[in-house]
Amino acid sequence: MTDAPGHIEFVHRRWPADPGQLAVIRHQLAGWLAPLRLTETETADVVLAVDEAAANAVRHAYGTVDGAGVDGAGGVVELTLWTEPGTLCIEIVDHGNWQPPAENPSNGGRGIPLMSRMSESVLIHHDQRGSRVLLRHHVPGVDVA
């Protein structure tokens, strides 16, 4: 997984799209970030942005609040993490259906703006195969060894 301090070659993991897995994702992500030597605030920002993307996948992509899908089949949330020079990249993927953000912020719809505040950039792509969210974070000192 890691080559040297400040570098993460590649991490890929998948979890059931279940709300109970969100805490597991947050915990494992925080551990994977350790080689980057981020500050507590930087780590919290990355974890919060990823948690929002993963929570959106769990809550919305598969048609039910438990991630089981309307047909009872279990969905998954995938996370891929790697570094490039000066940048941490994290991709969160689901294989469900895109749900546009709520128009009324009191009913939700705050996840994408929150991810945008926590990340250098947020790219979202959705099609018939599911949704992909790419979060990029500037990380001083991250270099390819």
Could you describe the 3D structure shown?
This protein has a single domain (11-138), classed as 2-Layer Sandwich (Heat Shock Protein 90), CATH 3.30.565.10. It is of the alpha+beta class and 145 residues long. A 5-stranded antiparallel β-sheet has the order 1-2-3-5-4, covered by helices on one side. The two termini are 13 Å apart. 30% of the residues lie in helices and 27% in strands. The protein has 3 helices and 5 strands; from the N terminus they run E-H-H-E-E-H-E-E. The model has no long low-confidence stretch (mean pLDDT 84). Helix 2 runs antiparallel to helix 3.
Task: Record the SSE blueprint.
Layout (H helix, E strand, L loop, with lengths): L10 E6 L4 H13 L6 H22 L14 E9 L2 E8 L16 H8 L2 E7 L2 E9 L7
Antiparallel strand pairs: 1-2, 2-3, 3-5, 4-5
Helix pairs in contact: 1-2, 2-3
Report the strand count. 5
> Roughly how much helix do the residues carry, as a percent range?
25-40%
**Overall structural domain count:** 1
* Residue share in β-strands: 25-35%
Strand order of the largest sheet: 1-2-3-5-4
The low-confidence parts are none
Q: How far is the first residue's CA from the last residue's CA?
A: 13 Å
Q: What does the radius of gyration come to?
A: 15 Å
**Which homologous superfamily in CATH is the superfamily?**
Histidine kinase-like ATPase, C-terminal domain
CATH class: Alpha Beta
SSE topology string: EHHEEHEE
**In the CATH scheme, what's the topology name?**
Heat Shock Protein 90
